[in-house]
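Model it.
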Amino acid sequence: MKVLITGGAGFIGFNLIKALKNNLDYEKIICFDNLSSKTINHNYFGKNVKFINDDLTNINDYKELKNVDIIFHLAAKGNVIDSVQNPIDNFNSNVFETFKLLEFVRLNGINKLIFSSTGGAIMGNVKPPVNEKNIPSPISPYGASKLACEAYLRAYSSSYNIKCTCLRFGNVYGPYSSHKKGVINKFIKAFKANKSIEIFGDGNSSRDYIFVEDIVHGLIKSCQFLDKSEDNFSIFHLASGKETKLNELVLILERISGKIISKEYYPSRIGEVVYNFADYSLAKKVLGFNPSISIENGLEILYKSLK
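Modeled.
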């Protein structure tokens, strides 16, 4: 199988490539990434991964990509606060580049695409746990951009007979994420530097944190599902199914680090969902997805690996 991974040098993409390199079903792996996140993960690919450093708007320039078997579309601007501050940049990176990719897929007869969507940001402030039956109601440009992409994937799957699966991720964390701005990385770096932690809100806001290894398993399961599925379009939530509050996150890191550091509380930020976690039972039933790494174990692994 010849695989194209957009955003493959990013956090999730790199972990996916590491897993696929050891799987004989994936004969050729191509990473397409513009390195806008400043990641250095591409330095560790090795000779058996083809790396293309470019924007998705230029994908038509690469003839070797026109006969790939499947695309994992992971490239995106994924920070909620950045999207509030610069919605046009978020739209161009997420919606417009996804549209250009779909046109490439349509014109070259590629018929399998897996898309990385989002759980909390696309659902907005609804009572958790969220699932595939909830009506999306994004409150940030980032969430809106992912919902727009899902709509285009649904339309293209119906109009052009393309098999598309949208995976709504929880808050993913884990190794090879040092370039990411997420709260877990910020907290761990603060602990290691003995600096105070910034908490927006009262610390009771919650997320569904899922370790990257579990997400990678879900991506591979989704690829296997597309090979067998008779449905052209599907959506699944990939999450831990557990709600973790910011204050609980701090307590876990205190146990792991053996440190107690000061906390500074600030007003909540516009665009951020207050409470979120997801029900992944549909993914478990259909894909065989079953996350196995607890937040305690995952944070300990990341704490030891994050510089």
